[in-house]
Write a structure and sequence with these properties.
- The complex is a heterodimer of chains A (112) and B (113).
- Chain A starts with a strand and ends with a strand.
- By secondary structure, chain A is an all-beta fold.
- Chain A has no helices and ten strands.
- Chain B has 113 residues and is an all-beta fold.
- In chain B, 0% of the residues lie in helices and 58% in strands.
- In chain B, strand 4 and strand 5 form a beta hairpin.
- Chain B is globular.
- The chains are: A mainly beta (112), B mainly beta (113).
């Protein structure tokens, strides 16, 4: 299993703006997942993108995956104060354990 | 989807005391189960994972242990807590297969004093 590394570590934007977070990883993957964590809560799954997919959408979320660069990005469009949270990427290797190794995450603050 | 229950929600324990955190899962059977710890303002550290009853793998050597006495029950234990065991403990569950996400419980906030 491998760790995803998120960039930037912290991001502060105004409500209505777009937020982009990036993730890099080191070895080949089966899929890559993004999670959100509100302060003091458990993680919530946002999107899973498979290694043979390049882009995936879910509501205001858009995830891209570039396996040649071993990187992914999460775009949140038209951000809201409720989007304030920490965001984690988790690359997953093949195998039956389903282990995810999380990085430090990106802390997003959306100011009203 | 799955629902993960954890208890207690918060716990304050003295150094040297034992620990038992429990996690139960609803909405699936034969899942993979995981224990994570998160220090304040940090990412998640995978502690243990289990692919079946009595099949536990440890990721980080420490004074914690895990057990899975039933298919959908995962327990994290310690015989003697250390100050460094303080943190936010999260249990997660995942269906078997290649393309499944993890479902997380609400967490237990442990403070060792």
């Amino acid at each position: 299993s491998q760790q995803g590394e998120e960039d930037p570590q912290a991001l502060s934007i105004q409500e209505g703006e777009n937020a982009t977070m990036n993730c890099s990883y080191k070895t080949s993957i089966n899929n890559l997942q993004w999670y959100r964590q509100n302060s003091g809560r458990g993680l919530v799954h946002l999107i899973l993108i498979r290694s043979n997919e390049r882009e995936k959408h879910s509501g205001r979320l858009r995830v891209t995956l570039d396996t040649s660069k071993k990187s992914s990005s999460l775009l949140i469009t038209a951000s809201r104060a409720a989007d304030t949270a920490s965001y984690f990427c988790a690359p997953q290797n093949s195998g039956n354990t389903g282990k995810l190794i999380f990085g430090q995450g990106t802390t997003l603050q959306v100011k009203p | 989807s799955q629902t993960i229950h954890q208890w207690p929600a918060t716990l304050v324990q003295p150094v040297g005391s034992p620990l038992s955190l429990e996690c139960t899962v609803e909405g699936t059977s034969n899942p993979n189960l995981y224990w994570y710890r998160q220090a304040a303002g940090r990412g998640l550290q995978l502690l243990f994972y289990s692919i079946g009853i009595d099949q536990i793998s440890s990721e980080v050597p420490q004074n914690l242990s895990a057990s899975r006495p039933q298919d959908r029950q995962f327990i994290l234990s310690s015989k003697k807590l250390l100050l460094s065991d303080s943190g936010f403990y999260l249990c997660a569950s995942r269906d078997r297969g290649a393309y499944y996400e993890q479902y997380f419980g609400p967490g237990t906030r442990l403070t060792v004093t």
